[in-house]
């Protein structure tokens, strides 16, 4: 019986956690001092379990995407950056907050931001004293009510302020943004799909920031890191994989067997049950894990997807945040 158990492969999540921790401990991700390894690890686990289907991608592409983000000092948390699935390939995709972070970390850009222009709004631009100037207002010249905006996107613009005080400005019409979108191998159609359909405003802002970033006083390495088009890559930088272990998609297809240790045959990393005990007296609502739990519920994740060690303080805080959202936010979240 034990002989049969010993031949079973660990569940995809268990194997991913092992490989991820091993890579972090070995320093393969070259994380900068500004990024906490544990926070990066937890964000990667949540991304792996998310509804984007990353677990179906090849391990080498997942770890390549994580190395790209780690090298840029970006968290795969959906805010600074995301890992996007193209078929069975996982690709790193910096988001607006991530592009801004990379620019500011260069030490030469003190501020970088972007906004979209909706229908009913106007964007006037001109040159004054040799520097670009702009005015974003309603069509009749009044200030924009930030709480009353929306509708069809007309365009977007990005603004950067350099350390010496100079300003650079980049406007783009919707036709220009659409031209850039359709240049992507995954966005050939007239209508946006995927992340463009879900977050058009954010992708428009990202497009105009990327266009402006080409002129910013950043290092070539910084520019190459964030300007590379997010297309399915040719995977030449491959993380070695044991020949006797199938890839993650194959492991998932093999069935829902309990994960066993390859040596002892004991069950490993059993996921906490839906009704797992929560010690409410020890929950810290100000912890990062509590916030992660709240966000996990909002993202439609399951309670069993808690990425922390069952029974640990972090696990308890994450579960506390998840249960709080479950009890106070409309929708079953399960």
Element layout with pairings:
Elements: H1 2-7, H2 12-25, H3 37-49, H4 59-72, E1 81-86, E2 89-94, H5 96-105, E3 109-118, E4 121-128, E5 131-138, E6 153-162, E7 167-173, H6 174-182, H7 195-198, H8 200-213, H9 220-227, H10 248-253, H11 288-298, H12 313-328
Antiparallel strand pairs: 1-2, 3-6, 4-5, 6-7
Helix pairs in contact: 2-3, 5-8, 11-12
Would you write up a description of this structure?
The protein has about 325 residues and is α+β, with helices and mostly antiparallel strands. It folds into three domains: about 1-95 and about 220-260, no CATH class; about 105-215, no CATH class; about 270-330, no CATH class. The chain has helices at about 1-5, 10-25, 35-50, 60-70, 95-105, 175-180, 195-200, 200-215, 220-225, 250-255, 290-300, 315-330, and strands at about 80-85, 90-95, 110-120, 120-130, 130-140, 155-160, 165-175. Strands 3-6-7 form a three-stranded antiparallel beta sheet. Strands 1-2 form a two-stranded antiparallel ribbon. Helix 2 runs antiparallel to helix 3, helix 5 (about 95-105) runs parallel beside helix 8 (about 200-215) and helix 11 (about 290-300) packs across helix 12 (about 315-330). The longest helix is centred in the C-terminal third of the chain and has 16 residues, at about 315-330. It is globular, with a radius of gyration of 23 Å. The protein starts with a helix and ends in a 6-residue tail after the last helix. About 35% of the residues are buried.
């Amino acid at each position: 019986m034990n002989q049969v158990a010993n031949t079973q492969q660990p569940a995809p999540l268990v194997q991913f956690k092992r490989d991820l921790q091993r890579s972090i401990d070995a320093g393969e991700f070259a994380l900068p001092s500004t990024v906490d390894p544990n926070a990066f690890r937890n964000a990667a686990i949540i991304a792996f379990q998310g509804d984007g289907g990353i677990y179906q991608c090849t391990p080498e592409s997942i770890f390549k995407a994580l190395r790209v983000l780690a090298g840029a000092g970006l968290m795969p948390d959906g805010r600074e950056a995301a890992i996007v699935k193209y078929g069975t390939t996982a690709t790193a995709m910096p988001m607006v907050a991530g592009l801004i972070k990379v620019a500011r970390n260069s030490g030469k850009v003190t501020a970088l931001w972007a906004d979209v222009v909706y229908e009913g709004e106007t964007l006037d631009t001109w040159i004054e004293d040799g520097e670009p100037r702009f005015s974003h207002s309603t069509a009749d010249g009044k200030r924009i009510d930030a709480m009353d905006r929306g509708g069809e996107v007309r365009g977007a613009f990005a603004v950067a302020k350099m350390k010496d005080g100079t300003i650079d400005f980049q406007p783009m019409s919707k036709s220009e943004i659409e031209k850039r979108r359709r240049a992507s191998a995954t966005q050939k159609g007239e209508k946006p799909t995927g992340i463009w359909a879900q977050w058009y405003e954010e992708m428009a802002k990202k497009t105009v920031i990327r266009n402006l970033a080409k002129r910013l006083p950043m290092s070539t390495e910084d520019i190459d890191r964030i300007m590379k088009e997010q297309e399915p890559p040719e995977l030449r930088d491959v993380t070695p994989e044991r020949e006797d272990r199938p890839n993650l998609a194959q492991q998932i297809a093999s069935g829902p067997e309990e994960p066993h240790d390859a040596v002892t045959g004991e069950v490993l990393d059993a996921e906490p049950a839906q009704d797992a005990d929560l010690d409410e007296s020890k929950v810290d609502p100000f912890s990062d894990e509590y916030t992660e739990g709240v966000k996990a519920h909002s993202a439609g994740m399951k309670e069993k997807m808690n990425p922390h060690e069952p029974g640990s303080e972090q696990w308890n805080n994450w579960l506390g945040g998840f249960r709080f959202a479950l009890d106070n936010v409309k929708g079953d979240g399960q």
